UniProtKB/TrEMBL annotation:
It comes from Nitrosomonas europaea (strain ATCC 19718 / CIP 103999 / KCTC 2705 / NBRC 14298). The gene is lysA. Belongs to the Orn/Lys/Arg decarboxylase class-II family. LysA subfamily. This is Diaminopimelate decarboxylase. The active site is at residue 345. Pyridoxal 5'-phosphate binds at residues 242, 276-279, 373. The modification N6-(pyridoxal phosphate)lysine is found at residue 63. NCBIfam families: lysA.
Length: 417
């Protein structure tokens, strides 16, 4: 089982856990992100159990969905975190996450962010360039600290995914080329305020095959062997995130098969295994609830104009990503082929093309698989307040982020007088 679904029809009504989505729309309005805490809990446990006796740490990639309630839920389950900014660090701390289970990735860490992470005593910096290593050493020295470091190595492996979310090929900006890793590790080993602790790679997102993970892990293990001969001790091996989910007809490996493959390849290595899953932890645990405002039938096309838009859910516009769109109440009437579009003034503002649905004005729709890179990539384009977020736990519904108001949007703006 690659993910757990808490969204199902009872008679003709779509439910999340024990709550009808129509009830959520009536109480909190639309657009609204809806998450299932059971789905997140179950998925975390599937990851955790799949490691068996193997020493491991799951560092959830905060960028996928950084709502405090989700971070707190994962922290209570024992999860660590992968962060890419000082802002994400602050969220992890605020949500009760353990800095000693937190790794800091990203090519552009600022001195302020480095200071904050050193002050918080995070587990490890995933360093992405020689220059960053030097800056980290200098700042750690000024603070009287020793910075724990993994080098993020770019293994030059094709992840076979959308080019915008492939990160482990030599032309990508991420990581240190494998050919330079040995030299930079020996430099790190000698720097007075750096403690080498791990080895890291992350080759991309929404991978639907195991082979690229194995190819990258193989390269990491070769490097690990070389580092050992150089006298560099590696305590943990971080194999990144990237496991895909099913949006449409993809058939990604199950979580169990993926973890088993990683554990098998690293079988003879005593290092702790770290992973940084984002999408596979929360993607199928959330949906975006939206209401049909207008139906427009032209001689060319049928449009369903809904109240969610590309500012709420950017993935279709940015990657031509497919998200399944389900009616909250199944209807028996005549179906038409609809373009599901939002109110934003961009032709690229769509949530789905060519969907066969029977619709009437005010119907509710659920944009599925929206738990990852949905709310976290949302914006206020067209001065649209961001959607509310709710989390369902059995029959209880918690508002975990209130809908923004327009006043919130211009609260920091000033007239030049
Ligand atoms: C360094 C790093 N780790 C982890 C992730 C999480 O990836 P995913 O959501 O595909 O599991 C990402 C995003 O691709 C990333 O850049
Ligand atoms: N934002 C992307 C994934 C990028 C992962 C970040 N490294 C998506 O929505 O699919």
């Amino acid at each position: 089982m690659s993910s757990f679904s808490s969204f199902e029809y009872r008679d003709s009504q779509l439910f999340v856990e024990s709550v009808p989505l129509a009830e959520i729309a009536a109480k909190f309005g639309t657009p609204c992100y809806v998450y299932s805490s059971a789905a997140i809990r179950t998925t975390y446990q599937i990851f955790d159990h799949a490691f068996g006796q193997r020493d491991h740490l799951i560092c959830y990639a905060v960028k996928a969905n950084s709502n405090l309630a989700i971070l707190n839920l994962l922290a209570r389950l024992g999860s660590g975190f992968d962060i890419v900014s000082g802002g994400e660090l602050q969220r992890v701390l605020k949500a009760g996450g353990d800095p000693q289970k937190t790794v800091f990735s990203g090519v552009g860490k600022t001195p302020e962010e480095i200071r904050a992470a050193l002050a918080a005593n995070i587990l490890c910096f995933n360093v992405e360039s020689e220059m960053e290593l030097m800056v980290l050493n200098e700042i750690a020295g000024q603070m009287g600290k020793i910075a724990p470091v993994s080098l993020r190595v770019n293994p030059d492996v094709d992840a076979n995914t959308h080019p915008y979310i492939s990160t482990g090929m030599k032309e990508n900006k991420f990581g240190i080329p494998a050919a330079e890793a040995g030299r930079i590790y020996s430099l790190a080993h000698q720097l007075p305020h750096i403690q080498v602790s791990g080895l890291d790679c992350h080759i991309g997102s929404q991978l639907t095959e195991i082979a690229p993970f194995i190819e990258a892990a193989d390269k990491m293990l070769d490097l690990l062997a070389r580092l050992q001969t150089m006298g560099v001790t590696i305590k943990h091996l971080d194999l990144g995130g990237g496991l895909g989910i099913r949006y449409d007809r993809e058939s990604p490996p199950s979580i169990e098969a993926y973890i088993k493959a990683l554990c098998t390849i690293a079988e003879n290595h005593p290092q702790q295994l770290l992973i940084e899953p984002g999408r596979s932890m929360v993607g199928n645990a959330g949906l975006l609830l939206t209401r049909v405002h207008y139906l427009k039938h032209t001689s060319h096309r049928n449009f369903a104009i809904v109240d969610a838009a590309m500012n709420d859910m950017l993935r279709p516009a940015l990657y031509q990503a497919y998200h399944s769109i389900l009616p909250v109440t199944k209807r028996t009437g005549e179906t038409k082929t609809y373009q599901i579009v939002g109110p934003v003034c961009e032709t690229g503002d769509f949530l789905g093309h060519d969907r066969n649905l029977a619709l009437t004005k005010n119907d509710l729709l659920a944009v599925m698989s929206a738990g990852a890179y949905g709310m976290s990539m949302s914006s206020n384009y067209n001065t649209r307040p961001r959607a509310a977020e709710v989390m369902v736990d059995g029959s209880t519904v918690h508002l975990i982020r209130a809908r923004e108001t327009v006043e919130d949007l211009y609260a920091l703006e000033k007239l030049p007088i």
